[in-house]
Amino acid sequence: MTSLYFLIYARQIFCFAVLLIIAGVLWQEYGSFIIPKKQSPPNIIMIMVDDLGWNGFSLQGNNNEVKNPTMEKLAQDAVLLENYYVYKFCSPSRAAFLTGRVPGHGIWEINPGNAAEVGVNLKATMISAMLKNRAGYSTHQIGKWHQGFYAPEYTPRGRGFDTSFGFLMGGADHFNQCRACANSIAPPDYTNHSQTCSVKDSCNVTCPEQGGVDLYRDDGPAFGENGTAYSSYLWSREAERIIDANHGSIPMFMYLALHNVHQPVEAPPEFLNHFPAEDYNETETSRRYYNAMTFSVDQVIANVTNALKRNGMYENTVMVISTDNGGTYEHYRGPKSPVTGSSNFPLRGYKYSYFEGGIRGFGMIHSPLLPNWRRGTKSKILLHITDFYTTFCKLAGLSDCSDEFSDAPLDGVDAWSLLLDNKDDNVKRPASGWASRGGPDEDEVMLGVGHGSSGALRKGDMKIIVGGVPRQTDGWSAQYPGLTEKRPPPTKDVSCKERPCVFNITADPSEEHDLADENPTLVAELLNRYKELAAAMSIDDIEGRDKYKDLIWDGAYHVPRVIDAEACERMKQTGFWAPWKSHPNNPDKKTFTHEFPDDGPESRFNEETLLI
Question: Which pTM value belongs to this model?
Fold first, then answer.
């Protein structure tokens, strides 16, 4: 009898122990003792910060001066991507995300002309159209486009976005949305935002009085909305408006492409006040403005997060925050402040460079859907901006993300599964989906194709750079520009021009020690693999290649760099930049469907909403 009681008691103890183990697993994975119900596909938000350097926020570099309370708070429930790559500049990097292809692999590797008759290859289905047409998402684009717009098919609405509000080219003034003023230095009083721009750049008009405004809503110019607010306010209000309207009714994809911290170096007083002028001398002015611009980014992210929470959408949202390229050397506020505001410290190089400072990007995935063990962590898994195309497809429940552009298959992998299925960050990056046809293999990322003559490859710990790197994009950033010293390039010659540069990125992330001279065998192996991949990726798929005389070879395209005279004529009709042609495949489609509003937009600005 005693033995029977003992067996019963032992069984109870065993069952209780099993329940404790199950509870522990649930708590570790979900932060709850309840098995989560199967949810609808998550809302997906991609926030792209323009020209953000590695040291732009306080989270990855060593910048204790910038103020980003929202980012610091979100990082507690996020995974920071420590080994994440983007392209070395603007439009191609965005195209890589939107199409899932490495620049040069069926999409361009160069910024298009401001108003040239060109756009990202229509054979590539953008992530917006993929999520909308195959997964039933509502899709929204806000802010910077820079993917071509000469015909309606190339605008955001033509590429699968339900709504669109932003600017079509690569830059604009933050206050008046004038394209020609994109590289100007704003006067301190913020009152004179008119200037005559060059014939080549903006059709020789004075903006905004004679035209040249770059602000577009859905299918036509955003009449009456230009000049009403600082750009961060415009994009923040639109994001909040869309989230409030959605209210969690259907899964939502939002591509919020902020213009900050891209030049011109401008910020309104309410942001500058957080960085008192007396704390900065004349050589530090750029850094003060840059810090204020970065702070405005943090506030936009706060507004978006709060909007998701008040609409009950936050718990089922995946938010990715990424730069498009490294910090630039271009920020400049006149001869009294000849110092850049951005910093990639301690990485080498700047925007436009294949050194780490140009292509290793800030990346963060924040979501309540992350398991507890992943929250507040940093991952060294090798990732690339193309991965978010595949990742978002999988999150939306799609098993097949391929499109009709079979000559240039997708390059990305599913980052979400890779991060959640592997607690060991030493796991190798999976091979691309087309590795059997010559694509990137395990632990390989092609960083730039360059038709086999100017690009870069990351293979395991190693990286090879092929082709020269301009001196202005080389060297090591100052930790605090204007206050601490930056370091010049190690040579007066153009780096990596006479022979490739090779670095062990894991052991030498700041690229201090070029291994090329001491290990020629390694150089030969990496160079051969780079050329193999470049040959496989250089797809000669050019729209209208015989039509243009002034073209630049660009991997899969000949990209016209000159402004189209018809674009100027169309812009002068309305004062706004907009599509000026019909695409040959759809010649009857109207270019403009937007009607002139009777009144300007109602301002919903409340300064308190931009403060935590």
Answer: 0.88
